[in-house]
Amino acid sequence: MQNDKNMKELVREKYAEIATQSKTQNETSCCGAGCGCSTIDYAIMSDDYTSLEGYFAEADLGLGCGLPTEYAQIKKGDTVVDLGSGAGNDAFIARSIVGEDGRVIGIDMTETMIDLARKNAAKLKLENVEFRLGDIEKIPISNNKADVVVSNCVLNLVPDKLKAFIEMYRILKPGGHFSVSDIVLVGNLPESIVKEAEMYAGCVSGAIQKNDYLSMISNAGFTKVEINKEKAITIPDEILSNYLNADQLQDFKDSKTGIFSITVYGEKAKDCGCGTECCN
After folding, report:
1. Residue 280 domain-assigned (yes or no)
2. Is 279 within a domain?
């Protein structure tokens, strides 16, 4: 796999291209960016948002792998931060819950996505939703500002995932919490997939072991960590065959490596009033 800087640039370019397409184009092209079936079909992972309040079709590019707002326990008046906000899909769902008294801040590292999200917010005439250009490993928000952090199939695109979780912890208020949908593994991917940059941009080769993912969240300081939803992701043979020969493909199937979408919840401990976070 290329170095972190190169991987970020690849992701930025890929998602800038995706931002110029509709959800239908993303789902009918093999990889979501018209690249000739060279990476994963995002429609394999995405969930249906259409019945949720606040849904705005123009903001739905079909790029998620869950519905993190479904388990985020967002309340009216909350400040919600959406990491990897894309065209604004999850941010607008969150805005429908927090109402006029709340606030939603979307963070994305792709300028084209930020521009698209801002245009969508303007169409909806939402004054308490903003979108900021920034890196999830260095979130442009000060300490203890968010009641809730959500993210949808984005942390797999972050090279230093522990740093991203530490940043999430930093921006959350004491007693705040997060709900993140992401891709994890049980078992090992073939080396040819792990090294493939295109599969990284498709959230697959960037996935880590489920147990390691959960441990990383705890190591960042979060408590009450739990999986609210889990579903298996099956990648069609026609996509895998771009990276594996027939024998390798069969070996991969025989290995029973599991690729899963999980939606995870975790809390930042409340401040006990003595300047440190504590329990009991």
Report:
1. no
2. no
